[in-house]
Each structure stands twice: as structure tokens, then as C-alpha cells.
Amino acid sequence: MKVRSDILRIYQSLHTWTGICAGILLFIGFFGGALTMFKHPLERWVSAPSALASALAPQQVDSVVREVLAAHPAAREEFTLHVVRHENNPAPVTWSAGHAGRDIDLNAMRWQASLDEQGKLVAQEVRPSLFGELVDMLHRTGGIPGTLADEYLGVYLMGVAGVLYFLALVSGVVLLLPTLVKDLFALRKGKNRKRFWLDAHNVIGIASLPFHIVISLTVIVFAFHDQFYDSLQHVVYGEQKMWARPSGTAGPGDVTKLAPASELVRLAQQEAPGFEVTEMLFMDLESPRPLVRVGVANEDYVVRGAVSAYLLMDPYNGQVLNSSMLPTKSDTWSSLVAPFFALHFGSYGGDWMRWIYFAFGLSGAFLFYSGNLLWVEKRRKNQLRDQAPPAQPRRTAVLAAATVGVCLGSVAGVAAALLAAKWLHAASGNLNAVLMTTYYIVFLACVAWAFWRGAARAAPELLALCALAGCAIPATSLLARLAPSLGMWAHGSLGAVAVDLTALVLALPLAWGARLAARRARSGPLDSVWAAPAAAAPEPAFPQERQA
């Protein structure tokens, strides 16, 4: 297909600058998004063993709920019954003193309750690990701190990046149209490293184009959902409430008359055959509108939640109040909205689809990383024959260092926070604050290191650091098994072991990349930003621009 050269130049400029402006922020978003595909296994890996993890019969669970509501009035406002329990949710019943907001409360405490061996209620207040929430925050905000109104500032910036991201996708497709058939899966190796990186960038971009279009559009919707809903409320609903809780029991409820939890599970299972009841969130039990939100899972359906579909019931008589969020009984609105959530979260198809989204997330991060490298290479000043290497423009050196420092710093920061969850567990009063602090210390240190050393020297060093941190994750689990006196732990569940294996597998290409980057720094073209020959005299990381 032929496209006029002047049109191609316009789209090339659009593709370049939209990609550069949003690329580094989107790298963190995509890397964090890939990890959120396995958010629950990560939380299980970092969660310490609990004495409340013993299995209970359904009648015993009913007893726990009844005794918790009698002894702890705060639970009547909201508590969760974990029907399916894992290392991060070891107790059948959990609750907190207040409702959680959108921002992460690092000091938040949560109660958990179960029965001891004598059948007596045991309740304890703990600070649950928020590692999964921290990773999700990086995914949604790019790690940018601060809030605007009641939302993270980074969420809005990520929404703007999503707009630029969509423009970069469209312009990139237009650029490839003239050679799309001939160069679709070309991956040419040789002395021209720029050609290889461009081919890799194009192949990954085209192969995952539908995924990226879906993600870019849903990022915009999620970032500005409050504004969309406010407009919809004003234009369509007017004075009528857009979200109205369905009516259940008339008047304030008496918690002693609450339906047994086992009966509610049975009724929910009856309403959603083929689905597994995973948890039940009880809300406002003493208000005029008590409610229980039942989470049900079935990997064969597109669901609205990150993992589950939902069913709303009356907690006193088991009446179904709303089943529109069940994929088998959804209304028109839910049928239109659910795919936006499911396509973004990957909440369909089971674990194999999560692995596909995980791979797409990492390949998307590579797309932005390689795009910045191409920008740097295209703008380098080439060395003329028999002349000294030219001083590269400051902007190329700055972008190269920022790309290396920010991208690899986010990888190293997440790995360091994961390690801190076990190594500093016994020594920390507030582990969640330690995890957050560890991430930002390592992240900022990597950025500073890249700007101080320059991209050529910092790239192999930071890649090696990321590879070492990846290997340290399974090594920590192994050490915990061999030396339990250290106060660490290693869960034997499939999800926890998969975290160790995945970290080890990802460490291998990082180590390989460190080796290649070091070789290029030693023996690459002297006129490249990525070259730092050992024999050459040290030069400033960011040379001054030459005067015209």
C-alpha cells in the first residue's frame, strides 16, 4: 500500500513524540500490569503463616460469624467471609474498623477471626500485607505520588498517557502500511543494530496490536471514569440516582436474625450454577438497606471483577436483589460494561489467559523501552571517517539515562520490595511502609545511578542488578526452608512456588541483556551513546551542546 511521503512524515513525527512523552510512564504501567495478573499469588508469597488457617466445617463458620457479630460491633458495618481461603486470607472472617478509600493506607489494621481447637472464638488484629496493592498502584499511577481531589494524580497522568498511547498506535500502523506485508515478521540481524531493534519493535507492536488498542482505550475510561459517570448522571439520569442500592429487609436489621452463612452460600450457588462462591462481603447489617455482595468465579465467562462476578443478596432472608452482574443473567448495561473490565483485567479464560496477558504486558513494556532506544539511535551524530567521535546532543544522553534508570529502576524496586517482605518482616513494625520505602529508595537510587554513570555504563550494571534481585527471590524461599531459624517462611502452594520459578525465569534474559549491554559498551561504535570503551578517557555523562 502506498502512502504519500509528506503524510508519512507527519505520522512519523506524531508517533515519535507521543511515544517519547508517554513511553517511560507506560513502561512502569505495563510492567506493573503484567505483575497484577498474578496479584494474588504475589500476596500469598509475602504473607506470613497464620495460626488461624485451620479448616472449618460450614456449621463452624456459621458459629464464627455469629460470635464475631456479637462480640465486635464494628463488624456489623462491614465484614468479609472468605469461602475460599489462601495464605493471604487464612481466617474465615475478616473486618476493619472503617471503610477503605481509593488510596492505600499503609497503617491500616484488619481483624481476623476463627475458632481454636476447643471451638472458642479467636480474634486478632493484624496488619495485612499490601504488596499486591502497591504493585497495582504502580500499574495505575506509574509510581507518581500525590493526590488530586480523592484520586491519585498519577491516575490522571496515566489517562493522558493513554491518549498519547492510542495516537502512537494509530500513527505507527500508518507508518508500517507501505511495507506491512514485506516486513511484517522480519527480524534482521547484522551490524546495523538499529535495524534489528526497529524490526523487533515493529513485530511486537503489530503482533499485539489488538491487545494494545483495548488497553489504551480502557486506560482512558478507568482514569476518567468519575468524569464520565458525572456527565452520564447529569445528562441521562438527572435527579434520579445512577447507583441505587436495591431494597432488602425493611427497617434496621437485627444481626441475631441473620441467615446462616452456609445457607447464603447454598442459595448463591443455586442462583449461579456452575460458579464457585469465593467470598461474601456483608455491608450495613444494621441499616435500612443491609446487603451481601457474593463473589462467584467461573473461568469460562467474561466477568466484571478482576477475578469474580457478583451477586447481591439480602443477608437476612437470602433474597436475590440483583443478578445483573452474573454473566448468565446480565442486563443490557452490564453486558456492555463487563467486557471493558474483563478485557483490561484479563479476567476470563483462567490461568492460561493470565499468562498471555502477562506476556503481553512484558512485551508492551519492551515496546516502550525499545521505542526510546530507537529515538536515541536515530538522533545520534555519526562519526566521520578518520575523525574523532562527535559529542552527542545532550537530549539524547538525557533520554538514554532516563530510560535506563526509570525502566530498570522500577523493575529493581519491585523485586527489592518483594525481598524486603520476608527479609525485614521480623524487624519491621510496619512492613507495608517498609515495602513502599524500599521501592522508592531503590527506584530513585537507580535513576540517580543512571544519570551519574551515563546510559552506557549504567545499563549493564542495572540489568545485572535486576537479574541478581530476580535470582534472590527463589534463593530466599530456599533459604527459608533450609534455615527456618531466620524467621522467614516458604509456602508450598502452587501459587507461591510459581512466583519463585517465574522470578528465576525472568532473571535469565535480564542477565543475558546485561552481558550484551556490557559488550556493546566495551566494543560498540564509538559514536553511540551506548559506547563506553574502557580505554577511553572518562567523559561527562551529559556533554554540552555544540554551538552552531
Q: What would you say about this model in short?
A:
This protein is an alpha+beta fold and 548 residues long. The chain folds into 3 domains: 164 residues, no CATH class; 144 residues, no CATH class; 170 residues, no CATH class. The protein has 15 helices and 10 strands.
Characterization of the model:
- By secondary structure, the chain is an alpha+beta fold.
- The protein has 3 domains: 164 residues, no CATH class; 144 residues, no CATH class; 170 residues, no CATH class.
- The protein has 15 helices and 10 strands.
- The strands form 2 sheets. It has an 8-stranded antiparallel sheet with strand order 4-3-2-1-7-8-9-10, covered by helices on one side. The chain has a two-stranded antiparallel sheet with strand order 5-6.
- Helix 6 packs antiparallel against helix 11 and helix 14 packs antiparallel against helix 15.
- The chain starts with a helix and ends in a 25-residue tail after the last helix.
- About 1% of the residues have low confidence.
The general outline is globular
Strand content: 5-15%
Please provide the ordered H/E string of secondary-structure elements: HHHEEEEHEEHHHHHEEEEHHHHHH
Runs in which pLDDT lies below 50 for 5 or more consecutive residues are 534-539
User: What strand line-up does the widest sheet have?
Assistant: 4-3-2-1-7-8-9-10
| Strand segment count | 10
Average pLDDT number: 83
The CA-CA distance between the termini, in Å, is 40 Å
